[in-house]
From TrEMBL:
Residues 134-184 form the Tc1-like transposase DDE domain. It comes from the Eukaryota. One of its GO terms (molecular function) is DNA binding. InterPro entries: Homeodomain-like_sf (IPR009057), RNaseH_sf (IPR036397), Tc1-like_DDE_dom (IPR038717), Transposase_Tc1-like (IPR002492). It comes from Trichonephila clavipes (Golden silk orbweaver). This is Transposable element Tcb2 transposase.
Length: 234
């Protein structure tokens, strides 16, 4: 368990607490079932999985340029195996790297194995995944629309009215995360420090905050119905 990042530990706890099985969690993160169980044992005993230690970690074997190459390869050939990705990455490098190094770099970029996990309201047995967004500019950009065109048949895109109430509880979770980040002193002064701070604050969000947001969904829907689609307190 020592080679797990704090972020991966948080992912394990989050997935298990939202109903994913040990096997589903292990497959999704590319880890052994025993590793998932060990993390949950620590979490159930101590209430957290953070070590409280901050270190620079092992030295990266890929330059920033090579990391971008790796990301482009994965984005372009999403169904390749880890060994195939490693082989193609090594064709761009003077010093070959192992598949484990490639996997570690992908995990550091929040890219994991492509084993589907059932998610409520996004996919149904025998059907492709269904993606819903709120028409924000980042979702309607040309590059995003091209991606959906390239993946037609694998990922559906739910039509959404141009003017509609935003009932996505994740917005409130982002707000909670931002408030915790702004309360830090001194504030993060580099991109790396900001990333670390975000991961730390995300891992420390109380589950009760998430549960309360889920519990508010029926009230949100009823509020939209009562306002006939107009502004709501949420």
């Amino acid at each position: 368990m020592t080679d797990l990042s704090e972020f991966e530990k948080g992912m394990i706890v989050g997935m298990r607490c939202t109903g994913c099985s040990v096997t589903e969690t292990a497959i999704y993160l590319g880890r052994a079932r025993s590793t998932v169980s060990a993390v949950m044992t620590v979490y159930n005993k101590c209430g957290n999985v953070t070590s409280g230690k901050h270190n620079s970690g092992r030295k990266r074997k890929l330059t920033d340029r090579n990391k971008r190459v790796l990301t482009r390869i994965v984005a372009r050939k999403r169904k390749q195996s880890l060994s195939q990705i490693t082989s193609e990455v090594n064709s761009h490098l003077r010093n070959p790297i192992s598949a484990r190094t490639v996997q570690r770099e992908l995990h550091a970029s929040n890219l994991y194995g492509r084993v589907g996990i059932r998610k409520p309201l996004t996919s149904f047995p025998g059907e492709c995944a269904l993606y819903q967004d709120d028409n924000a500019p980042i979702h309607t950009a040309k590059i995003v629309q091209e991606w959906f065109a390239e993946n037609e048949g694998e990922v559906g895109h739910l039509d959404w009215p141009p003017h509609s109430p935003d009932l996505n509880i994740i917005e409130h979770l982002w707000g909670y995360l931002e408030s915790k980040l702004r309360a830090r002193f001194p504030p993060p002064s580099t991109i790396s420090a900001l990333e670390t701070a975000l991961h730390e604050e995300w891992l420390h969000i109380p589950l009760q905050v998430v549960h309360d947001l889920y519990a508010s969904i029926p009230r949100r829907i009823q509020s939209v119905i009562q306002s006939k689609g107009g502004p709501t307190p949420y």
